[in-house]
Design goal:
Helix content is 41%, strand content 13%. It is of the alpha/beta class. The strands form four sheets. A six-stranded parallel sheet has the order 8-7-9-10-12-11, sandwiched between helices. It has a five-stranded parallel sheet with strand order 1-2-3-5-4, sandwiched between helices. A five-stranded mixed sheet has the order 14-16-15-17-18. Helix 21 links the parallel strand 15 and strand 16 (576-580). The protein is elongated and about 85 Å long.
């Protein structure tokens, strides 16, 4: 290691951050300046990566959890040879640039995760580490090691204060994810004030209590950083690692360094003097010296050789293990069997159970056809029914397990599932009661933003929960999920629609899907074929009962209320059509011609029924229609009683139609 060269690179990274943030008068200087030496050692020495193959399967992953410090990662990606040019750095935070305000997945080569809200990146890194552990256990053989990467994440004081990080840290320690190395940029500052105002935690003792290895170092001592990282990489002792790096926020700008003012762009007005103090030329901004360019060019050349050797090893492994190679290729491609729906057996005509129970049967059938599927639950497998019966449990002792026991950690479950999906080898799903969806809403939103194929299995979907009462009856939650862009929300109306919902979720590769399932039994709609129900879900909405005379009335419903619309139509007469609408988002993506065939504009007498808030249904029923719903909280009573009391019945549909 040349400490002189790394020190020079660190100061030039500081200069890039100063210039970019000064140019747009927006951004966060504190972390890029305070952690510059950490970046120099990570990208200059400790991490294994190849800029020419940014998605190399066995690369080390780096996640910036403190995403507001985005110029840290953009500077180091530029310096180390990724496809982030000087012009890209100059266009920091500008329209259509690949250097947005917070790092975004797929926007920038080398960015591994969309980390906006603090703490999310810690959970994402844990997901990456879980994926890496399972990939090594599943795909490595006695003759060929194709996975042995490390997961690095950089977080700050704000990340550690967030509950999602604490949940994820506990999970990682319990499950022995010793391929995870967390670097804590401990500068004792938060945005508003010095950290002492809001925290008094002994970080090292905390991590040790969570079954982590912990060490505290000077975050500006290049040799100490390098030694700590090498020790962490070498020690596969069943404990994740944290390096608590004591740093000075905004280091390099004396006017704000070490203070809360150094967090944001407040120091930008002092950058000319600061650049001079760092030895950077006054007449050239966004400066990278020939020496630094040569240093990273040599590292890139060496990385190409390492990558080529790995590729040769991979090719030999693939030739010796064609079935495993096909499985890995299919997982990375998000491949789904074309006959997946046919691989889920039809339910018996007398089946009468909750859609959560049907979902468990369906998921187990799908998992046999798609070995990349793994699933977890927030301490509710017995209720959410998504346990893979022959899958084994993921743990320190068994990283091959397909069932993940998240514990009562809904938010971490969401962030960890995102990390698994970012890695792209396995297809994750997580389950809990629908009413707790808000505990992982931040992670769901980021999955939708980043286009991750995560599946959420939410059960106990309405006031049908019954005696647990209004705290557990999610009247508003389905609509709350439906308003998240790029999230498909599917609420099936019987077991066969549930099969269609699961298959639809697996087929979707450009965003997440939330499956909304009942606790209570609902009947099969045997008057419709299996294919009609499953394929109807694929389009989001379909005709469940067609009128046998001139169309006069359309009844719309989904979930457990579909049965009431069907029963009401039988009594209302030949001119009544029932439309099952399990997924608004899928229906809205269909052609105008298809949507008109299901909901013809000429028929304005429309009634919708759903055991939840009514607001979103009006776009389908129009100003002359009616919506039967529940615009209040529920009540503690048996589920059927609550449904009757709040108008979720056939008779109420008939009365509304008449």
């Amino acid at each position: 290691m040349s400490t002189t060269q790394l020190a020079q690179a660190a100061n030039e990274a500081r200069g890039l951050a100063m210039d970019a943030i000064h140019a747009c008068n927006s951004g966060h200087l504190g972390l890029p300046l305070g952690s510059a030496e950490i970046g120099a050692v990570l990208f200059g020495e400790s991490m294994r990566y190849c800029p020419d193959a940014p998605k190399w399967l066995n690369r080390d992953r780096f996640i910036l959890s403190a995403g507001h410090g985005s110029m840290f990662i953009y500077s180091w990606l530029h310096l180390s040879g990724f496809a982030v040019s000087r012009e890209d750095v100059k266009n920091f935070r500008q329209l259509h640039s690949i250097t947005p305000g917070h790092p975004e997945f797929r926007e920038t080569p080398g960015v591994e995760a969309t980390t906006g809200p603090l703490g999310q990146g810690v959970g994402n890194a844990v997901g990456y580490a879980l994926s890496g552990k399972r990939a090594a256990a599943h795909f490595n053989t006695a003759d060929h090691t194709i996975f042995d990467q490390h997961i690095f994440a950089l977080m700050g004081d704000g990340c550690l204060q967030e509950g999602v990080a604490k949940e994820s840290i506990a999970f990682a320690g319990h499950n022995g994810l010793d391929n995870l190395i967390l670097i804590y940029d401990s500068n004792d500052v938060t945005l508003d004030a010095m950290a002492v105002v809001s925290q008094s935690e002994d970080a090292e003792a905390y991590f040790i209590s969570q079954n982590w290895d912990a060490v505290t170092i000077d975050g500006h001592d290049l040799a100490a950083i390098a030694a700590a990282l090498e020790k962490a990489k070498a020690n596969d002792n069943g404990r994740p690692k944290v390096i608590i790096a004591k740093t000075i926020i905004g280091k390099g700008i004396p006017e704000v360094a070490g203070s809360a003012k150094g967090h944001g762009e407040g120091g930008a007005k002092f950058v000319d003097a600061a650049r001079a103090g760092l030895g950077l030329p006054a007449d050239e901004h966004f400066y990278v010296s020939p020496e630094t360019q040569a240093f990273f060019a040599a590292k890139t050349a060496a990385s190409k050789q390492i990558f080529a050797a790995w590729q040769a090893n991979y090719d030999a492994w693939a030739k010796a293990n064609p079935a495993l190679a096909d499985e890995l290729t299919n997982g990375l491609a998000n491949a789904v069997p074309t006959d997946l729906s046919e691989q889920v057996p039809a339910f018996a005509a007398d089946y009468n159970d909750a859609t959560r129970s049907a979902g468990g049967t369906i998921l187990n059938a799908i998992a046999k056809a798609m070995p990349q599927i793994i699933t977890g639950s927030a301490d509710l497998y017995g209720s959410t029914k998504n346990y893979l019966k022959d899958g084994g449990d993921f743990s320190k002792a068994n990283p091959l397990g397909r069932n993940i026991w998240f514990g009562i950690r809904e938010h971490a479950m969401g962030a960890i599932c995102n990390g698994i999906a970012y890695d792209g080898i396995f297809r994750p799903s997580g389950a809990t009661f629908l009413v707790f969806a808000d505990y992982l809403r931040g992670s769901i939103r980021l999955a939708a933003l980043a286009g991750l194929p995560v599946t959420y299995i939410f059960t106990h979907d309405s006031i049908g929960v019954g005696e647990d009462g209004p705290t557990h009856q999610p009247v508003e939650t389905v609509s709350g999920l439906r308003v998240i862009p790029n999230l498909d929300v599917i609420r099936p109306g019987d077991a066969e629609e549930t099969a269609g919902a699961f298959v639809t979720a697996m087929r979707r590769t450009d965003g997440p899907t939330a499956l909304i399932l009942t606790r209570q039994a609902i009947p099969l709609m045997n008057e419709l074929s299996v294919e009609t129900r499953r394929e109807g879900v694929f389009k989001g909405g379909y005709i469940a009962k067609k009128e046998s005379a001139a169309l006069t009335t359309i009844l719309l419903a989904c979930g457990s209320e579909l049965q009431h619309a069907m029963a009401a139509a039988a009594e209302l007469g030949a001119g009544v059509r029932v439309v099952s609408m399990p997924c608004f988002e899928l229906f809205d993506r269909q052609s105008a011609e298809y949507r008109e065939s299901i909901l013809p504009a000429a028929c304005t007498k429309r009634i919708a029924i759903e055991a939840g808030v009514t607001g979103l249904w009006w776009k389908y029923v129009g100003t002359q229609g009616k919506v039967l719903g529940i615009d209040r909280f529920g009540m503690s009573a048996p589920g059927n009683t609550a449904m009757q009391e709040l108008g979720m019945t056939k008779d109420h549909v008939i009365a509304a139609a008449k």
